[in-house]
Write a structure and sequence with these properties.
- Helices cover 38% and strands 21% of the residues.
- The protein is of the alpha/beta class.
- A six-stranded mixed beta sheet has the order 6-7-5-8-9-10, sandwiched between helices. It has a four-stranded parallel beta sheet with strand order 2-1-3-4, with helices on both faces.
Length: 425
């Protein structure tokens, strides 16, 4: 008898469904479904079929018509799929009607994203934010839907926060929501307190923003020499990561990685991840990374800008980076350069044109520094911070003091105001 071996079960099959409105082209729907397929893949499933219905407007009660629901049910029978995922955010009524018409559990795009978040959050802060988003999501669906969540069977999203019967009780969810908000506020306060104690808070802050899977973490590693985990998938960076970046002439700044954005990202998710996105609010320069090898690069740029507008930022300085040029550029490069004249085309993976980004970052850093002359007591603790944050141009030691000429971050100048003897720039 031949030996038997344990085999890994196949990924659960998923049917993707979507509604195409008159203003949406076939290419836009295909790209959106391709993105949904990547989300499903990241969540642990595989799309084995799709159904699209062209409608004048979304049906508030059932999303798909009766005929299309029957078509989906037949496709499930043919493919052996275990779940259906809609390419939009659904109401509880739409979920219930779809489940009744199809005979299979139905999730929506937001539910898949939350499941991915749940798998990838590793810090206490990240887990709190995921749970907060899940509770907010559940509160909107108390009227019905997701009735099979407690059933133990194959599929995506059948475990995690907000899925038991008691958690669908409105009173319990609202109490939990308040507790999570209070805990997250405390996390933010604690981090702000720790940040105020760190010297590097005075260093200029660059924040990487961009569409999910644009290569932000790879760029962070390339610029800082760090080894942040990089995965070829959507939403693999959830917890904030910051690294020091050394540039030419002894200048240094702090580079922060952030969660990737995506089209159809619900406003509630942006609110839930406000703590993770705090680095964006505090940054002096946003480095907007875009995967230029993607045919939807312009649409991705616009989607990120819409999310940034929702955050009501005070219009920080921006550097546009078109990443992944090593994979090819399926766009008119001259047209892109005309639309974004200061954009940098590079490959974070191969290092091509990375020096150009370093040069621009150095220019931004220089603008945030000021050259000052100081006379500092030789035993003053601030001397260590001056050397850590600034660039020493000249120094002369005297009895009990040192005369310095240094480039220092403008945000740090209040710390050395008592020691200033002159300003050269």
């Amino acid at each position: 008898m031949s030996p038997t071996h344990a085999t890994k079960p196949d990924k659960p099959g998923i049917i993707a469904i979507a509604v195409q409105l008159p203003e949406q082209s076939d290419a836009e729907i295909e790209d959106s479904l391709a993105e949904l397929s990547e989300l499903v893949k990241t969540a642990g499933g595989v799309v084995v079929g799709s159904v699209v219905q062209k409608r004048q407007r979304y049906d508030r009660s059932s999303y798909l018509g009766t005929g299309k629901m029957k078509e989906v049910a037949e496709l499930i029978e043919t493919t052996g799929a275990v779940q259906v995922v809609a390419d939009d955010e659904l109401t509880s009524l739409q979920v219930r009607r779809l489940e009744e018409g199809i005979g299979c559990e139905v999730l929506d795009r937001t539910g898949i994203i939350l499941n991915i978040f749940s798998d990838h959050a590793s810090t206490r802060e990240g887990k709190l934010q995921v749970e907060l988003a899940a509770v907010q999501y559940s509160l909107l669906r108390l009227a019905g839907g997701y009735r099979g969540m407690s059933r133990q069977r194959g599929g995506i999203g059948l475990k995690g926060p907000g899925e038991t019967k008691i958690e669908t009780d409105r009173r319990v969810l609202k109490m939990r929501l308040k507790r999570l908000n209070d805990e997250l506020d405390k996390v933010v306060q604690d981090r702000d307190l720790q940040r105020r104690k760190r010297t590097d808070r005075y260093a200029p802050l660059f924040a990487l923003v961009g569409y999910t899977n644009a290569g932000k973490s790879t760029l962070l590693n390339a610029l800082s020499g760090s080894a942040v985990r990089v995965c070829d998938g959507l939403f693999t960076t959830l917890d904030p990561t910051a690294r020091r970046v050394e540039l030419a002439g002894g200048l240094r700044g702090i580079l922060s990685d952030t969660v990737g954005f995506i089209r159809k990202l619900p406003h509630g998710l942006v609110q839930a991840f406000r703590a993770t996105l705090e680095s964006v609010r505090h940054s002096q320069v946003l480095i907007h990374v875009c995967d230029v090898s993607n045919v939807q690069a312009r649409e991705h740029l616009a989607a990120v800008e819409r999310v940034l507008q929702e955050m009501e930022l005070e219009d920080p300085d921006r550097i546009i980076v078109f990443n992944k040029i090593d994979r090819g550029v399926p766009h008119n490069r001259e047209a892109l350069s005309a639309m974004f004249p200061d954009a940098i085309f590079l490959s974070a993976r191969t290092g091509e044109n990375l020096d150009e980004l370093r040069r621009v970052m150095e220019e931004k850093l220089c603008a945030s520094f000021e050259t000052v002359e100081l006379t500092v007591p030789s035993d003053a603790p601030v001397l260590k911070d001056i050397r850590l944050l600034g660039r020493i141009l000249s120094e002369e030691w005297m009895e009990g003091a040192v005369q310095l000429r240094a480039d220092l971050p403008k945000t740090f100048l209040s710390r050395v105001a008592a020691f200033r003897t002159g300003v050269t720039r």
